[in-house]
Structure to design on (616 residues):
């Protein structure tokens, strides 16, 4: 399988605390990887290394489409085509919708003067198509601090989509959403698959991850405890395994009937 | 409330309008209470002469506060840049001495601002502490190298520099008022229509979000404090050239006036939203009060209380008319005092911060 992202021997230590130990992780082209793990398993740290926010400890290597990437930064990651929909949406509350959509990647001329008209026009277009905002009270000039949870999610997802990402990371995207908003969000993950892009889908809730993921990776206490291909395991069996993991710290991966 | 934009919210969306309203009301009041003074142009010309040096400081400070930071060191830069200019003018021979003085004075301001920026962005010293220390340090250095003496530069009046910065256009309008207006226009453009200004707003709004969205927070802060240093040096130049003398404690007393102008103007103390237009007119409100109150015939002891009232009135109007939300001051003070790294752990604006695991 062709990999869009490959990470080899990734460790990350914060002072005394080792968040990740020698993790090997990869995402294939057009693959949806579900990343499961309890709080503190290292999911967010892994994501922040992929997005260039944290630098892995020496010895770790990152490859993007078979090419080694050294000194990954946030803007470099975005240039490569890595987009994140953060758990908390990563919006600037006091700023207008159009500034949030183009945050960190403004349309501007060579002198850095903003193409405000262009950004407002694009935002208005996106509002009616991708975001599904129908209320006439919301304009590109509205400040996002006044938006509802679902609207904020719409902004964050639309922002990831607009810039034609190759790899979209969804960090707990269903948290705090209503049932219909969750449905919309899972449809969006399906849409990523249809469009031939890749995604990493992080969630506490296996119910959400299982149907949309091609492969499920389980992270536990900073290491990869195991992985399962779609169809390798029934939903109930997966739940049993994860419960067992939580109790014993061991995840069985080879023979489904071993227990 | 969202469905129908009320008249108030439309008025509130015009930047600086409430402040202009307060200024006009104030002048209207003065015209009624002191008609002999306030119906003649002389008093207004005097405002245009005395307000610009620290109005310029307020314009720079608006950007700093919008970024969620604070600068207390600019009064010392006013002294330092005045000294550098006066010293060069006095001791370097040749007709280009004043121009060299200007360049070196601005460079001195840039140096102070840059060291502030390094301490704040790279070392992680909270800006309130770094710039408080800088204010003492640079005043001390200035007094030290000036030997505590003032420098008389009366000869500057005959130079083109004097005409350029503080001459009287058409014989009446002080040139420094136009410089201040020009700088206000430039900084408004930078804040609202340029990537640098947008980075300032994002950082003031939420530095962690700005960082994960690829904004170089550290570099932007260093550039911002350097710019503030240059602007403060420019304010010092306007003052020194206007009064034809450098004195070692010049600039003292500007700090609170300048901050008052910024907050009257509607800039949020919690960062993320700043109004250059508001600061511009806010400075004229503050600058007009003293002369105005005295001219009305009441004792000048009223000036300070009147200033307090005006500040409160303007801020209340800003809150009522605009969509601005004044964040709790305690959150802001915590932000200034806690080092950058500890901030994400502290409460306050962490609701939108991607958290580590």
């Amino acid at each position: 399988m062709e990999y869009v992202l490959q990470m080899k021997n990734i460790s990350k230590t914060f002072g005394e605390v080792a968040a990740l130990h020698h993790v090997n992780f990869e995402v294939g082209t057009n693959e949806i990887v579900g990343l499961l793990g309890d709080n503190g398993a290292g999911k967010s740290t892994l994501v922040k290394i992929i997005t260039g926010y944290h630098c892995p400890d020496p010895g770790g290597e990152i490859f993007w489409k078979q090419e080694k990437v050294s000194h990954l930064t946030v803007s470099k990651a975005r240039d490569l085509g890595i987009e994140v929909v953060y758990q908390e949406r990563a919006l600037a509350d006091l700023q207008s919708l159009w500034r949030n959509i183009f945050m960190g990647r403004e349309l501007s001329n060579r002198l850095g003067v903003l193409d405000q008209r262009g950004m407002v026009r694009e935002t208005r277009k996106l509002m009616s198509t991708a975001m599904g905002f129908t209320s006439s009270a919301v304009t590109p000039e509205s400040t996002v601090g006044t938006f509802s949870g679902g609207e904020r999610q719409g902004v964050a997802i639309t922002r990831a989509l607009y810039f034609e990402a190759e790899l979209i990371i969804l960090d707990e995207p269903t948290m705090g959403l209503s049932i219909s908003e969750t449905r919309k969000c899972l449809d969006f993950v399906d849409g990523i698959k249809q469009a031939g892009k890749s995604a990493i889908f992080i969630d506490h809730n296996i119910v959400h991850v299982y149907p949309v993921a091609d492969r499920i990776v389980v992270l536990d206490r900073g290491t990869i405890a195991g992985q399962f291909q779609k169809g390798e395991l029934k939903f109930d069996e997966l739940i049993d395994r994860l419960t067992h993991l939580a109790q014993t710290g061991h995840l069985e991966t080879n023979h489904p009937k071993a227990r | 409330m969202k469905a129908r934009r009320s008249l108030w919210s439309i008025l509130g969306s015009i930047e600086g309008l409430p402040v202009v309203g307060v200024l006009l009301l104030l002048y209207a009041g003065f015209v009624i209470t002191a008609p002999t003074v306030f119906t003649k142009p002389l008093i207004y010309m005097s405002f245009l002469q005395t307000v610009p040096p620290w109005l310029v400081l307020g314009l720079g400070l608006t950007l700093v506060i919008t970024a969620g930071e604070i600068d207390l060191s600019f009064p010392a830069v006013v002294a330092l840049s005045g000294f550098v200019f006066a010293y060069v003018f006095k001791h370097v021979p040749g007709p280009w001495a004043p121009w060299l003085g200007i360049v070196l004075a601005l460079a001195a301001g840039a140096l102070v601002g840059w060291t502030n920026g390094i301490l704040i962005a790279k070392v992680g010293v909270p800006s309130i502490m770094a710039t408080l220390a800088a204010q003492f340090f640079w005043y001390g250095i200035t007094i030290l190298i000036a030997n505590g003496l003032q420098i008389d530069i009366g000869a500057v009046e005959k130079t083109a520099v004097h005409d350029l910065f503080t001459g009287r256009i058409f014989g009446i309008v002080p040139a420094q008022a136009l410089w201040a207006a020009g700088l206000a226009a430039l900084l408004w453009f930078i804040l609202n229509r340029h990537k640098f200004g947008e980075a300032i707003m994002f950082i003031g709004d939420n530095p962690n979000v700005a960082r994960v969205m690829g904004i170089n927070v550290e570099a932007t802060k260093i550039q911002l404090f350097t710019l503030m240093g240059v602007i403060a040096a420019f304010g010092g130049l306007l003052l020194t050239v206007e009064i034809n003398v450098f004195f070692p404690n010049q600039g003292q007393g500007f700090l609170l006036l300048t901050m008052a102008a910024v907050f009257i103007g509607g800039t949020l103390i919690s960062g993320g939203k700043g109004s250059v237009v508001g600061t511009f007119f806010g400075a004229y409100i503050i600058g007009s009060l003293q002369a105005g109150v005295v001219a009305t015939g009441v004792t000048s002891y009223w000036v300070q209380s009147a200033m307090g009232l005006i500040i409160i009135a303007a801020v209340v109007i800003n809150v009522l008319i605009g969509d601005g939300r004044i964040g709790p001051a305690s959150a802001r003070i915590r932000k200034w005092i806690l080092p950058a790294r500890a901030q994400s752990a502290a409460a306050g604006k962490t609701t939108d911060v991607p958290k580590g695991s």
Remarks:
- Residues 7-343 of chain B form a domain with the ABC transporter involved in vitamin B12 uptake, BtuC fold (CATH 1.10.3470).
- Chain B is about 70% helix and 0% strand.
